[in-house]
Design goal:
2 copies of one chain form a homodimer.
Chain A lengths: L5 H17 L3 H10 L2 H8 L4 H10 L4 H8 L3 H8 L4 H8 L4 H9 L3 H8 L4 H12 L5 H4 L6 E3 L4 H10 L8 E5 L5 E6 H5 L7 H4 L13 H11 L3 E5 L5 E6 H19 L13 H28 L1 H6 L2 H4 L1 H24 L8 H30 L7 H29 L4 H29 L2
Parallel strand pairs in A: 1-2
Antiparallel strand pairs in A: 2-3, 4-5
């Protein structure tokens, strides 16, 4: 009954599926599907070939469990699986799922295909789905569950407990949401508080009145922030009149936090922000990665032009060219370190507005320390290796490393801070800006210093 | 009562604190502290100067709320705040906190200081804390809550409900954990199932028997994986005899997911893995970042040596030097994109074992597409700009960009996959390995191609 060896069990499951699929053992496959947790099925499903996916999905029941399985897949994969399915089969699969799962699944389909599924659902479901699908992607409205119920504030705890027991829809009840005469949310009580209070006590006397809530248009990242900050299990979503529209639950927040981290990773590396990039074709993949490379291409042309201007210096001392890579590399790396620390510090709330100057000064000190250290080390290497060319080359190289690392640390710190100030997502633009500007500045400085000390 | 404007309210709170602190308005400060949520207090606390932090912490009550506030701070900050406090005050603050909060707070102190606090606590608390502090850092044991209770499988639902109502300690009850005659965990039931079942039904008849559990030594990342995968609110921690030791709850998992993402970000950028690096001194900061820079320094020396070997080629055609930066830059960037996509894909379970070859081939295609595109663009630029030097330079530069981007995409994909195969955390080593090897390979290839086409 334990499942400590998570990966191990997934491997076994995958092998069993593989064997049954090769033998086309339908009856056994059906049994195995029934026995497997929808979330596990979603994990092993990714390993299947396209034809195997079709084979498995074809024998899956048209019920809620299959809907649960679907929502655990990546969007692109849901779309692939459902593409060939009839609107009838899809509507059977999702008809008993929660409204947010329904709209999530339908959101992956082509508009026309989705509409023909919606037309087959019950009128009340249709309205709810259309409302949910109307909220912006990545908003609280798009991810909230609407299977909720509220209790009136003058209800007694005993009556509330009875009402609760009759609720079949609301499967994950963490808190009780309590409303006033105008149906506005005025308080919340825990299930535990309800169970441990004398049954005649009114809800208004046990409820907490200070509630954090969000609007349907609130960005999912802000919702995640609130849930993480206060250790909540759910956050209510209210309209402008304080009516309860739905709940965002912690299990969805866990997914959001992972997704947002993935998007930030990709953005920082200039690889777009599509967390399903691995599922996309090579062309789409290349298209997403093109823009950052363009920035670095422009940077390269500028660097080439700068070096072209200093050609006469290289001519007098060929050894100068040998150190271009290390000056760029050291600068680029310390710049990436700084910008990553800053971007992540801002994302996790560790860099407060107002503390920028202090952090900039600290990064400057780090740049001075590391630049000094590696500058001396590389200077000594250059001195001995290229002593014949000019003994001063060591000084030039060492000083250039020092300056370019110092500047890179400052640029790497400043750019994300500046971007936040002007309301651009620091993760998006930091990568290209930092590496490109550090490359150009580093090369330029190197030749300026060389010109000064070597008098070429 | 809404708190949608999260940042806005924090700003107001911070300003109010600032005003009261400047006026040394003790009475009002005390009132404000009482009114503020411990989690909010932890957020604004970061903005205070050292002396302000001392001033605020001095007037905080010696109670559970203060302990709650402390655990919301970063480790380094807890240590700073408590450093000057007497063991007596610390023991008063933490005496009513949960055992895992106690051991978490004590874990930030110097061993001797922590021991003198432990000596002041109740014997039963002492034992529990010492047990928890004995588990490895970042393990399920170190993060589990031990305020739990179990129910015997032959208990009726009615009796279970009564027992539950008497439990004051276990504040966050999500599931009921059910044991057999040997006190082994055999099942779990939801609070809702309990409330909606006739009171004479036995727990064994309503409990789910298939439970995912972890061992105390399980890594927190694996625990997070299970909670995220199955949308659990808590995972039981069992010893080797299946006795329930504690629970890891979803709110702690939310923190783990964020922390692990931050650590991966820093590791990928070669900036260590200390997520509190921003709170550390410049020296410690520099020390954490030194190793990656060393890798890139070694790479730079190798590149310098390679270029030194080809000095005669630069001498015959100075323009060759001008394109060193762009060849390195383009290769480095596409390599970073590939490795980021792969490392993150592995962390989120999107890259399955067995699918490596397929992904490698796809990245190769992406490298061919993007390398071809940018190679042609740069080749044309080089052709026109340096036509006088040699019309073939355009071909050399274009072909070099193409080859180096293709190789970079392959290296950036292969290295993290290889590291996972040999059980090294791909995030740790990917950064330095990829950029350094891509730099060296790129420069080497460039001069080989130049030697072939230009016949220098």
């Amino acid at each position: 009954m334990r499942k400590e060896m998570f990966e191990h069990e997934i491997t076994i499951l995958r092998d069993t599926f593989g064997r049954l699929l090769r033998r086309h053992a339908h009856t056994n496959l059906t049994k195995l599907i029934h026995k497997t947790h929808p979330a596990d099925l979603a994990v092993v499903f990714r390993y299947f070939m396209d034809e195997e996916q079709i084979q498995v999905f074809n024998i899956m029941d048209e019920n809620e469990r299959t809907a649960e399985f679907l929502v655990e897949l990546d969007d692109t994969m849901i779309a692939n699986v459902l593409e060939r399915e009839s609107p009838e089969r899809i509507s059977h699969i999702i008809q008993h799922a929660s409204a947010n799962d329904q709209s999530y699944i339908l959101g992956t389909l082509e508009d026309e295909h989705a509409q023909s599924v919606i037309d087959l659902l019950k009128t009340e479901d249709q309205e709810e789905i259309e409302e949910l699908m109307g909220y912006p992607e990545d908003s609280a409205g798009a991810m909230m569950t609407t299977d909720i119920f509220t209790l009136y504030q003058d209800t007694s705890c005993g009556d509330a407990l009875k009402t609760l027991q009759d609720q079949e829809e609301a499967e994950m009840v963490f808190y009780l949401y309590i409303t006033d005469d105008d149906d506005c949310l005025v308080g919340v009580a825990s299930l535990r508080a309800l169970a441990t209070t004398p049954s005649e006590t009114l809800l208004r006397d046990i409820m907490a009145k200070r509630i954090h809530s969000v609007r349907p248009e609130t960005d999912q990242e802000d919702v995640a922030q609130i849930v993480a900050q206060y250790n909540y299990l759910a956050v209510p979503v209210l309209d402008s009149d304080n009516h309860l529209l739905g709940l965002v639950t912690v299990d969805d927040v866990v997914d959001v936090i992972r997704e947002e981290a993935t998007e930030d990773f990709l953005r920082m590396a200039g690889a777009g922000k599509d967390r399903e990039i691995l599922l996309k074709s090579s062309w789409e993949n290349a298209k997403a990665r093109l823009p950052w490379l363009f920035a670095s291409w422009i940077g390269g042309i500028i660097a080439a032009t700068i070096i072209g201007r200093f050609e006469h210096m290289i001519q007098s001392m060929l050894a100068l060219a040998a150190f271009i890579p290390v000056i760029m590399g050291m600068g680029g790396n310390i710049g990436t370190q700084s910008s990553t620390i800053i971007v992540r510090g801002m994302a996790t709330g560790r860099i407060e507005i107002g503390s920028e100057m202090k952090i900039l000064l600290k990064e400057m000190r780090v740049g001075l320390i590391l630049g000094g250290l590696y500058g001396i080390m590389l200077g000594i290497f250059a001195y001995f290796k290229f002593f014949d060319a000019d003994p001063m080359l060591g000084v030039v190289v060492g000083l250039s490393i020092w300056c370019s690392m110092l500047i890179a640390a400052v640029v790497g710190t400043f750019i994300p801070m500046f971007l936040r100030k002007v309301d651009i997502d620091p993760a998006i633009a930091t990568g290209p800006f930092v590496t490109t500007s550090v490359d150009i500045l580093g090369v330029f400085l190197y030749f300026m210093i060389a010109g000064y000390f070597l008098a070429l």
